[in-house]
Specification:
Blueprint lengths: L4 H11 L6 E2 L17 E3 L63 H4 L11 H8 L8 H12 L13 H12 L3 H9 L6 H14 L2 H10 L7 H10 L3 H13 L5 H11 L18 H9 L24 H13 L5 H8 L10 H17 L2 H17 L3 H13 L5 H12 L4 H11 L5 H11 L10 H11 L5 H8 L3 H16 L3 H13 L3 H13 L5
Parallel strand pairs: 1-2
Helix pairs in contact: 1-10, 3-5, 4-25, 5-6, 5-7, 6-7, 7-8, 8-9, 9-10, 10-11, 11-12, 13-14, 14-17, 15-16, 16-18, 17-18, 18-19, 19-20, 20-25, 21-24, 23-24, 24-25
């Protein structure tokens, strides 16, 4: 006797735990983020329920990458003392920890005030945080990362909803900072569907999906969509339940044709024998990317959002793919430079051209520096520096080698190049002091660089147009009316974002933005960030 498949589907559907309606992202939502684990539009953002875990701001065992700078204040700068201006009355729950307050870095570590946002509106902050910024200099990228990870008093209108936390996590994901984003999601005591969506995507890209699936199995209300549930059932070895769930979704019309074909091949690879490969999607989600990999049709991560590069760092990826992925992530400041060092020096390149030429040049320089022979170092340094410049990895290189190069007795062009590497390292002030003490600067450019690193440009002639744009910020800093308004309202976090945008205008051709942004950074007490940003403006080719 034949059984009506619609009846089977209806029975199965009744046994399935209801999936939550899609939670809309906080203004920011990255296109690829969590589409693999969302359902059709329906409800508003669900708050990360449960509040904040008690304890310190930095979870035990969480390691921060070396690329996260902790800003240093300018000695003698006056503190912002004006009271906040009046704002609309806002209701909030008293005594309940807000998810928006969590952070991996305490105010004592960042040097930023705990009251970062004052009377600013959460939606405005989220919009400014998640705005796309192109051609961002590494020093400013690091400052933004610090701001995203900072523990801070939540905005007055946050209401414990967690909108700002979700915006911060989304921005971290767009920067490829998956480890930090994952740590932020773990700081909320009870996981909500919104947080789990992001955690699930991170797990798919970092190869920890079994743990995420176990979490989903233990808390069925977190299961975002049928494809995500099917994937996790199969990962757990329950292929029959996975197939029944897919059959139910097909009968109820809950999967589109492309998604259906992909899931069918995932559950029964034999059906793909002799079939044409599936067309690659224009913008795959992490789940779709993993499903294509599982059916033997892996998609390249080059050209996808930088967060996908983490998938290429897994052991099953080839050495070349790992190197190129690490380069993309190191360029964003999302991984420790030592991870890039480890991959570059893992083995000898077996080919030439492209990435292999970079690896060979890097290894020659690393060996020469390890031996400590000045002549070999002088010979290898220009080629290694050129290789790093070609992929915009000057800052990771300087972080790895700048301090060691200062101790090598070099002369001529090699010494001048080593000096510039040192200026791009965290030890830029020491590099300037040593260069000034060794001999008089050979030209106006070097003299200006030394003065800038030391924070004193009085009497120094700017050698080019960018130097002329930078100089006023270190002679007589002037901030804009918009910046003054933010400072008067004690909206320090928004003022920092304004400074980033102002300097960004300078990078793309507006010299006024350079002076305004650097002046604001100095007014905020971020002298270290201001100097490193100015040095990068002069030494890096990031002119739009």
């Amino acid at each position: 006797m034949a059984i009506d498949p619609r009846l089977i589907a209806a029975c199965l559907a009744a046994t399935l735990v209801a999936l939550p309606a899609r939670a809309e992202g906080p203004l920011s939502a990255i296109d690829w983020l969590s589409k693999s684990v969302t359902t059709p539009k329906g409800t508003q953002v669900a708050p990360p329920a449960g509040g904040v875990k008690p304890g310190s701001s930095l979870p035990r065992g969480t390691a921060l990458p070396a690329s996260v700078p902790l800003p240093r204040k300018l000695p003698g700068e006056p503190a912002i003392t004006k009271d906040a201006s009046p704002a609309p009355i806002t209701a909030t729950v008293l005594g309940k920890p807000s998810p928006d307050a969590v952070g991996l870095l305490s105010a004592a570590r960042t040097g930023l005030p705990y009251r970062l946002w004052a009377l600013a509106r959460t939606e405005d902050i989220a919009r400014r945080l998640t705005a796309e910024r192109t051609d961002t200099l590494p020093a400013l990228q690091g400052l933004l990362l610090t701001l995203l990870l900072a523990e801070a008093e939540p905005p007055v209108d946050s209401g414990g909803q967690g909108m700002l936390l979700l915006a911060r996590i989304d921005k971290l994901l767009s920067m490829g900072a998956l480890e930090q984003a994952q740590a932020l999601t773990a700081m909320v005591e009870t996981t909500s569907p919104d947080l789990f969506r992001r955690r699930f995507d991170i797990a798919l890209l970092t190869g920890t999906e079994d743990a995420a699936c176990a979490e989903m199995q233990a808390a069925p209300h977190l299961a975002p969509t049928l494809p995500a549930r099917i994937f996790c059932l199969a990962r757990a070895g329950d292929w029959q339940a996975a197939a029944l769930t897919l059959g139910t979704a097909q009968a109820l019309g809950q999967v589109d044709p492309a998604e259906e074909e992909l899931l069918v091949r995932f559950l029964d690879p034999g059906l793909a024998d002799g079939a044409d490969p599936l067309p690659p999607p224009d913008q795959p989600t992490p789940l779709v990317w993993r499903l294509y990999e599982a059916i033997g049709e892996p998609l390249p991560t080059l050209g996808l959002p930088v967060a996908f590069s983490h998938a290429e760092l897994r052991p099953q990826a080839g050495w070349k793919a790992q190197i190129e992925a690490a380069e993309r992530l190191a360029r964003m400041g999302a991984i420790d430079p030592n991870q890039l060092l480890g991959l570059y020096t893992e083995r000898r390149p077996a080919a030439s051209g492209g990435v292999w030429d970079r690896v060979a040049a890097f290894q020659r320089f690393d060996r020469a520096l390890s031996v400590g022979e000045p002549a070999a170092i002088a010979e290898a340094l220009p080629e290694a520096w050129s290789a790093m410049t070609s992929v915009e990895l000057e800052i990771p290189f300087a972080q790895l080698y700048g301090e060691r190069l200062m101790k090598v007795p070099l002369t001529g062009e090699a010494a001048a190049l080593a000096f510039r590497v040192g200026l791009l390292s965290p030890q830029y002030q020491e590099a300037a002091q040593a260069r000034a003490a060794a001999s008089p600067p050979p030209d106006l450019t070097e003299a200006f660089l030394i003065g800038l690193a030391r924070g004193r440009v009085e009497g120094l002639a700017p050698p080019d147009s960018m130097s002329r744009a930078i100089r006023p910020a270190f002679l007589a800093p002037q901030v804009t009316d918009e910046a003054l308004h933010l400072l008067e309202d004690r909206r320090v976090g928004e003022a920092l974002l304004l400074a980033l945008d102002d300097v960004g205008r300078g990078v793309t051709g507006d010299p006024r933005g350079v002076a305004e942004g650097l002046s604001l950074l100095r007014r905020l007490g971020l002298e270290d960030v201001a100097r490193r940003t100015a040095l990068e403006l002069l030494l890096l080719e990031r002119r739009g």
